[in-house]
Amino acid sequence: MTRRTFSTAVHGLRPRSLAAAPLPASHTQRQARRSLQVRAASSDEQPEPKVTPGKKGKRKGKETPEVVKLDDFNPYSIGRKSRAIFDDVWQQFTKLSSPTRSFNMEQLGSAGDRSEFETPQAAFTTVLVAGATGRVGRVLVRKLLLRGYTVKALVRKREGMEAATGFPSTVTVVNGDVGDYEACKAACEGVDKIVYCASARTTMTGDLKRVNEDGPEMLAVAYHDTLNAKARRRKQISSRAKKEVVKFTREDRLDEWQVQEVKKGEDNMSKVRSKYRAKQSRRDEATVTINKQQNLVFEGTLYSMRGSAEAGSPLRMRFDESLKGCEGLLVRAKTDGQPYILTLTTSENKTYTARISAPADRFANNRVPFNAFRPAEAGDPPLEPVLVDRIGVRFEARNRTLQPVLTNLGSSSVLGDLDSNKLDFRFEMEYIKALPGGEETDFVMVSCAGAPLWDRDSEAAAVRDKRVGPLRRGEAALRKTGLGYTIIRPGPLLEEPGGYKALVFDQGERITQGISCADVADVCLKALHDPLARNKTFEVCYEYTPEAGLAMYELVAHLPDKANNYLGPALATLEKNT
Question: Order of strands, edge to edge, in the sheet holding 193-196?
Fold first, then answer.
């Protein structure tokens, strides 16, 4: 029979042949402790040694109980387990009385979970907030700082400076008024984008005109001048500068601009009226001159009922530039109060037209986006600005009544009545410039939604329109500056937390509900870098059920979500250059 022995180096047991040998007490104690440590580290798969039944009681009485040492515990793993257990208990407890829940911070390490506060362009963008002490402005300033923007605040010298003391030290505060050009120019130094949240604090006419009407244009002009001065120092041209298309200070412009055609009208008249009309149509005339102010004057007289006259020139821009990358034209002109038509002809001999209406007896800028041009022939493709090689101005005689002629048929005064039916026109133009394009907006303006179309006769609507009127004129002035703009018209502002209700984005002055200041500030923030927000005007309010009779309109609601950009899909269906 084979005899099995086990080494003490493995299991801490002595050979059987030495079991009866006496050992010193100190050696026995050391051996017991050593046996305990080795046994604890041994594998469970090792076979247990055979013990003689007669000696079982003796060996059991000599065994030393297992001692657990402090080194056997890992405090890090125990802490994680305890936190996980406590978190689970706390989560179950909070579900009973609150919608909130706790999170394990070790599981929130991915960048996607912090995307709400991460904007890649923020580190390189300086934003000027006009009206930073207002209800929307103060929320917007903190949102910008959380995302890493450099913020400048334009506040009033008296009332605003007291509220500006609550701004963080990282905000550069500029005291001044939006009606002061020098203050606006100082505030625009080093600025990349502007958010205009200022509003008049009273309903006095002077205050409304200074803040709501003149303020946006003043700040935009100062911003333009700052960018142009910065570009000149670098011997460059600002990317936001308008391109010169036509300016009549050059002597050769008169030779280029000529009367192209004078068309006679065609009417279904009787033979008698056609006879007199044919005589008068021979006298239709139009001329083109350049006056002492170096402006083009296009004038003439039309006797035909539906006659027209047009003057034009080949498109020759400076530095051999083209209209590629531009979004529209800016025409500075003065008219006699009648509508005129701007014509563009491409190299493919396709003509596109757009109406312009300048005020009488004073010069004004007319912004004509390229998407406003319509083809003269049905079926032609949309206008491609890069193909334009000719530009012109056309006047068309309006249809007028023939009652004076009909009542005097057969009399000798028919010819005189036809003479009184002549139509004079005069169009004076200073220049035409091209508006540069871009990907992002430059100027965000917080305006105000007007009263709904079906509630214009109420007393509340009249009070509201007194404030909205100057804002609409301020919006129009901003569009004509050539900057990329985003005009936001919120409903009545509410002092409540944002991000809890769906928002409705609409065009057409049909909204009736209010919106929180925090939601308006968030829309301003997201519009800074969203390409779909450039050159758009829209209303925004909380989701609501349309009034009776308006169900045919589709109002798309979008819920503010921290994980994605809700503004892009909301604005994708809205019309541009509005």
Answer: 172-175, 150-155, 126-130, 193-196, 443-446, 485-490, 536-542, 503-506, 557-558
Specify which residues 539 forms β-bridges with: 489, 506
Residue 50 CA, distance from chain mean position: 85
Give per-residue burial for 162-199: e unless 16+ CB within 10 Å, then b: ebbeebeeebbbbbbbbbbeebbbbbbbebbbbbbbbb
Closest C-alpha to 194, from 441, 473, 522: 441
SS3 content of the chain, % helix, strand, coil (to 5): 35, 25, 40
E strands present in 84-204: 126-130, 150-155, 172-175, 193-196
- Which range is most confident: 107-116, 254-263, 318-327? 318-327
Residue 546 has a pLDDT of 64
Residue 255 φ/ψ region, left for φ over 0, alpha for ψ in the -120 to 50 degree band, beta for the rest: alpha
Q: Count other Cβ atoms within 10 Å, centred on residue 256.
A: 15
Region 322-329: what's the mean pLDDT? 89
Among 33-47, 261-275, 516-530, 540-554, the range scoring the smallest mean pLDDT is 33-47
Q: Which residue has the tokens 């180096």?
A: 9
Claim to verify: residue 200 and residue 185 sit in the same structural domain:
yes
Phi-psi region of 172 (alpha: psi -120 to 50; beta: other; left: phi over 0): beta
Give DSSP secondary structure letters for 180-244.
Answer: -HHHHHHHTTT-SEEEE----SS--HHHHIIIIIHHHHHHHHHHHHHHHHHHHHTT---TTSPEE
pLDDT tens digits for range 101-152: 444 444 433 334 445 556 788 889 999 999 998 999 999 999 999 999 999 9
Tokens describing residue 141: 């300033």
pTM of the predicted structure, to 2 decimals: 0.72
- Cα R_g (the chain), whole angstroms: 41
What is the domain extent for residue 354?
Answer: 246-433
Contact 208, 200 (CB under 8 A): yes
At 159-186, the pLDDT tens digits run 545 555 678 889 999 988 998 999 999 9
Number of domains the chain is built from: 2
Distance CA(35)–CA(398), nearest Å, equals 116
Do 151 and 172 touch, CB atoms closer than 8 A? yes
Angle between helices 517-527 and 135-146 (to 10 degrees): 50
Looking from the CA of 307 toward its CB, the CA atoms found within 13 Å total: 25
- Could you tell me if residue 159 is inside a domain? yes
- SS3 sequence, 491-520? CCEECCCCCCCCEEEECCCCCCCCEEHHHH
Whether residue 100 is contained in a domain is answered as no
pLDDT in tens, 366-409: 999 999 999 999 889 999 999 999 999 999 886 444 444 444 44
What is the domain-level CATH number for residue 268? 2.60.120.260
86 by DSSP, 3-state: which?
helix
Pair of tokens at residue 509: 């002055």
Averaged pLDDT for residues 263-291: 64
Residue 12, in any domain of the structure: no
